[in-house]
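Bit of a strange request maybe. I'm writing a small parser for structure token strings and I need a real example to test against, not something I typed by hand. Could someone generate the tokens for this chain?
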Amino acid sequence: MKKFKITLTFILLLTCSITSTAQDYLITDFGAVPDGISLNTKAIQSAIEKAHDAGGGKVIIPSGIFLSGTINLTSKVELHLQRGAILLGSTNINDYYTIEGDNALIISRGQENITVSGEGTIDGQGQELALNIDSLHHRGIKVDPNYNYRRMRPGGRPNLMKINDCKNIKIIGINALNAADWVLRLDKCVELEIDQVRVDSDAFWNNDGIDLEDCQNVRITNCNVNAADDGICLKSNDSNSFCNEIYIANNIIRSSASAIKFGTASAGGFKNVTIENIKIYDTFRSALAFEAVDGGTIENITATNIVATNTGNAIFIKLGHRNTEGKVGRVRNIAIKNMVVDIPFGAPDISYTIRGPELPFFHNPFPASISGLPGHNVENVTLENIEISYPGRANKGYANVSLWNLQSVPEKEAQYPEFSMFGELPSWGFYVRHVDGLEMKNVRVNVRKEDFRPAYVFDDVKNLKIEGGNITSPTKTSQLVVKDVSGVEINNLTVDWKKITTVPAYGKNSGIKGVELITNR
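Reply from user aminoacidic:
Good idea to test on real output. This should exercise your parser:
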């Protein structure tokens, strides 16, 4: 015991010694000028290199406006922005450089033990920077061969922050504003913590808030994200890797695309993800979107305690086959519990600077959807304690898919996945196709105005269980439609204020009010 105490004392003294050697490096001591005009890239980088060469330290950006181009953050360095500090991104693309293709205001690649912290702000001046890049393209100075003319969107726009192949990263407390492209982009990082960060970027196209690409052991907590594209987005570009052990909790998200999204890039996939206590508002597309279209796997996902208001779509789960020459992926073991969603009739992002694109076809309000492919089912989905309110006001003269013609809904297996990808859908609440194993427990859907469509359409579904819940609609039509469904069990579902007590098997429920069987004709 005495020997143990001596050893413990030695370790504590050694830890204190190591901690005490870490120094603070004030960027103004290296020549940085807080006037918002002078370019401070060299001064800030010199402070970082000094801290790194000393074995680690804290590089401090004090109160003031410090203009800069690309900063390369190295191992054992903490970049700390004090309250009132603004790191202002240059609007001249020549002040930026790339590291192995990475292009950002703050770059780190292949490093360990790095931190960006503080109460200050990183402002990328993204719109001005993007438009200057755009001008260079049109003047023939820096021509982008893949220029997007529809959106006036040039390539080569820097991320606000790009951290690649790093270990033990912390991004704590900062304000991340106005990117020219994605805001916080983390690729193949291990042991990552993002906490109490405010992302506010409605500056230009593709302003994703937080993107994880094939990252492992990640926590994103207590953040407030306002993004002109996906809010928190998981991606997988490497078929030999995947996002794994991700915890996303206690965040507020506003998005001109989807609030929390897996994909579209989904080569390897996403496994073991927990999402909880999320508030979503003014979101153009889906509150939750799970998309496996490039051969990867989505599995073991739980999402609980989600509240989404003024959001275009509640849930979108899609297995596709965009990589037409490769394998088909898998989507399985997804549980969504305790979710409340309010769907508006109009565009939820009408007040955004960069709004979601108008669809090229007429349509009625879209339902939530879960869809696989013929011969490749989405597997084992649980929806429990879900409440979704829909606007109604659908009109057959505007768009219509007849129930006898459900096969006309296209598969679009190779198309970019989005909740609107199928065009008009034949239900207002849930559209489910090519699924094996769906349990809906106490799922409550209501439509505020008349909608001629049924609430639920199940097409090519195996092992469907509905327990409790209700469907409320002012329209007196069948609200639950099944086609090519086997192993169905419905207990105590209230439809039009009357209970369906038991539906033990497909083929035995045609006489029960509210349920309609559709056969191929």
